[in-house]
């Protein structure tokens, strides 16, 4: 009976992120509003260009379009709540919205991990088996890859969300974050979280570490294939098709590993929030910039789209 009362008594949580700088709330709102707008429009533009330009109707750009869509969902599930809290003295989020935010966040993170591994396989086939590329990376395989990434992220998130919603919260309601995430909520629970922690660590192996290792192995094979190319120009062109993806992988997994595998103790709230911001906001913002600056085909498609709009006016 006691657990039931404790569980239903929590109607909302308090998000402590940035709350220790009350004098900067409007300034932080403007900064993160600009970042969110740039990230949203950048990823949306990449998605629209991939759809509109027939030259980009290839497996590589089909996967890139899905990456941009995931990043849009990723940020839209967390940043609007953060922006709203900048404008309110009470930095609260309802229990149901908190659970919904956890589901969206983990779904997108898991899907992106798997999708980045699929993109690494695409680059491996393109460089190591170029003559068979269109045979191996056919439309059905591409659809299966995307379906696997979304399904894996969805199922992983569903398990975490259900396990988290089954916890009792009877102590402090203050979350050391600007959004709801599983680890901070486990710290607030007054019930046994052994099962939650076990599932969290198991999922990190299958959804996080395994795709990362797959990407590393793929690029080892790619590196050997590139080194076998005799001309330096040929090597440069071959590896240039991988640089954008490799940069995104290093940024995403680097910030994710740093965020989730660091020690919880000895850090100020500012340090915790800075690290989380790099992982949750900066990375989705950089993805469209990286692909638009380092990829000649995307730059040409963007110029073509811009010329079309100018012609209409």
Mean pLDDT over the full residue set: 83
Shape: globular
Number of strands: 3
- Supply the helix-strand structural class: mainly alpha
Based on CA atoms alone, the radius of gyration comes out at: 21 Å
Count of helix runs: 12
The top level CATH class name? Mainly Alpha
Order of helices and strands: HEHHHEHHHEHHHHH
Query: How many distinct domains?
Result: 1
How widely separated are the two ends? 68 Å
CATH topology: Rhopdopsin 7-helix transmembrane proteins
Question: Which consecutive residue ranges, at least 5 long each, have pLDDT under 50?
Answer: 1-8
Say which CATH homologous superfamily is assigned: Rhodopsin 7-helix transmembrane proteins
| Strand ordering within the main sheet | 2-1-3
**Beta fraction:** under 5%
Residue share in helices?
A: over 70%
Tell me the major beta sheet: 3 strands, mixed
Indicate the CATH architecture: Up-down Bundle
What's the SSE blueprint?
Layout: H1 2-9, E1 12-15, H2 25-52, H3 59-76, H4 79-86, E2 92-94, H5 95-128, H6 133-136, H7 139-165, E3 174-175, H8 182-188, H9 194-227, H10 232-260, H11 269-294, H12 296-312
Parallel strand pairs: 1-3
Antiparallel strand pairs: 1-2
Helix pairs in contact: 2-3, 2-4, 2-11, 2-12, 3-5, 3-11, 5-7, 5-9, 5-10, 7-9, 9-10, 10-11, 11-12
Structure description:
- The chain has 313 residues and is an all-alpha fold.
- The chain has a single domain (2-312), classed as Rhodopsin 7-helix transmembrane proteins (Rhopdopsin 7-helix transmembrane proteins, Up-down Bundle), CATH 1.20.1070.
- 77% of the residues lie in helices and 3% in strands.
- It has twelve helices and three strands, in the order H-E-H-H-H-E-H-H-H-E-H-H-H-H-H.
- A three-stranded mixed β-sheet has the order 2-1-3.
- The longest helix is centred in the middle third of the chain and has 34 residues, at 95-128.
């Amino acid at each position: 009976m006691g657990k039931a009362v404790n569980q239903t008594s929590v109607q909302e949580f308090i998000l402590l992120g940035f709350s220790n700088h009350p004098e900067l709330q409007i300034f932080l709102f403007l900064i993160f509003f600009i970042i969110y707008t740039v990230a949203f429009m950048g990823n949306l533009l990449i998605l629209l260009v991939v759809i509109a330009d027939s030259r980009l109707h290839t497996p590589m750009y089909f996967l890139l379009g899905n990456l941009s869509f995931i990043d849009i969902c990723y940020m839209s599930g967390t940043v609007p709540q953060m922006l709203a809290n900048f404008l309110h003295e009470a930095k609260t989020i309802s229990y149901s919205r908190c659970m919904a935010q956890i589901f969206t966040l983990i779904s997108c993170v898991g899907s992106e991990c798997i999708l980045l591994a699929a993109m690494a396989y695409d680059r491996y086939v393109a460089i190591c088996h170029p003559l068979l590329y269109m045979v191996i990376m056919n439309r059905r395989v591409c659809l299966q890859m995307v379906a696997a990434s979304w399904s894996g992220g969805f199922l992983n998130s569903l398990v975490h969300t259900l396990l988290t919603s089954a916890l009792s919260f009877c102590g402090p309601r203050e979350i050391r974050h600007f959004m709801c995430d599983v680890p901070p909520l486990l710290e607030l629970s007054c019930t046994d979280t052994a099962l939650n922690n076990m599932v969290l660590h198991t999922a990190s192996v299958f959804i996080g570490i395994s795709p990362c290792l797959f990407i590393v192995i793929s690029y080892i094979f790619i590196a050997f294939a590139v080194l076998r190319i005799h001309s330096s120009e040929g090597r440069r062109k071959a590896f240039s098709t991988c640089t954008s993806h490799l940069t995104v992988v290093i940024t995403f997994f680097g910030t994710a590993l740093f965020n989730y595998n660091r020690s919880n103790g000895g850090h100020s709230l500012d340090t915790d929030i800075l690290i989380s911001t790099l992982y949750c906001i900066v990375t989705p913002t950089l993805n469209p910039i990286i692909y638009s600056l380092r990829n000649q085909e995307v730059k040409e498609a963007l110029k073509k789209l811009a010329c079309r709009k100018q012609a209409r006016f």
